[in-house]
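Pinned message: reference record for Dihydrolipoyl dehydrogenase family protein
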Amino acid sequence: MQTVDVVVVGAGPTGENVAGRAVAGGLTALVVEAELVGGECSYWACMPSKALLRPVHALRAARRVAGTREAVTGELDVAAVLARRDSFVSQMDDSGQVAWLDGAGIGLLRGHGRLVGERRVDVTGPDGTVVEVEARVAVVLATGTTAAVPDVPGLRDARPWTSREATSSSRVPGRLVVLGAGVVGLEMAQAWRGLGSEVVVLDRGERLLPRQERFAGELVEQQLLEDGVDVRHGAAVARVERDGDGGPVTVHLEDGSTVTGDELLVAAGRRPATGDLGLEVVGLEPGASVPVDDSLRVTGVDWLYAAGDVDGRALLTHQGKYQARVCGDAVVARSRGEEPAYLAEADEAMVPQVMFTDPEVASVGLTGAQAAERGLRVRTVEHDLGAVAGASLHADGYRGRACMVVDEDRGVVVGATFVGQDVADLLHSATVAVVGEVPLRRLRHAVPSYPTMSEVWLRLLEDYGL
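Predicted structure (tokens):
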């Protein structure tokens, strides 16, 4: 048996940060990891997906400016793009991440961790050896999520891609069918289309990005269609079949039509990686999200915490790292007989997120519709980003839109959305405004630099009437 103060199951960005926070607070910590230290984001999600998208977007950006478009005489070097992607995932070698753990004074135990009792975790190593670990203070679950594969006849037998295969493939499929039109589906559709695939996106809904402001889905779809991506709405899948071993995949839709591709990417959301964590030991349901309070402590279990995607609150890497800071500090505080100094308030209505398609979709807080559903008296103001000097300099014929959602009773911004090329860096100013509940009468004195795209803030305030 090994004994430490804090045992963290899962060594992704969330788990690493929980452990780091605990050690910084004077506790000892051990992380348990069955795969690569660094987790999903580092090797199969955030980093490789953006590495695939960046060359596609950079080439397009050059072609949108007179003078540089004439200098672009070739196409993407696909082999170089894939090699650059591989460099960002360190060739699937986690030794650099392991060195960081070691330097931070965090222990590592490789294997599958499972709760077996109060503050006790069994870790089954790659060779089948079981090590029992006991936490003097707390156990933290940070195992994240895995790709959800719908229960469609023939789908699993067809060996579809999930996000992991889509971000790590060493070859460009001639034809790619994408089942699902969320962030993963649309980002990967655009990436592989830019690298040469023929792409069909099957969207079960009637419009893209229904949880965003309506113009977001409209502008993204317009660009996808111009890229040559075939977007089909109301596409309900009846069954799937693959021809032989590695042959074409045919998707049969409920309307009787079919779509055939060389690969099928299932981008139908994520599910908590809790199926074999031993949750039944503490009376929780295996396979479900782990319920927590705002300090990330598991409901009804004073020694158990859950942070990141595994708790289902906000499935984003940066929110997981935010939760990790809250969680780690809460564990340290309670080990001293104190209560946490702050809680995870941002998970409720202040979550920033970026979809790295072209155009990018960057949003924080509530949409106008969401705010109204919460009973707020709101006003939504929109402005054409292409009419802002900084954007028109950024790209010829710049196409984009921005909006802010104002709580009329308090006079503060409760949501903002920006859609357009390279708008992601506009988002943090909006996040500060939303989180800080900055009154509009003060925002008018936050003078944007000219000529930058940030000038859209001035235009939004003017359109509001200030």
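Pinned by admin. Summary line: The chain is about 30% helix and 25% strand.
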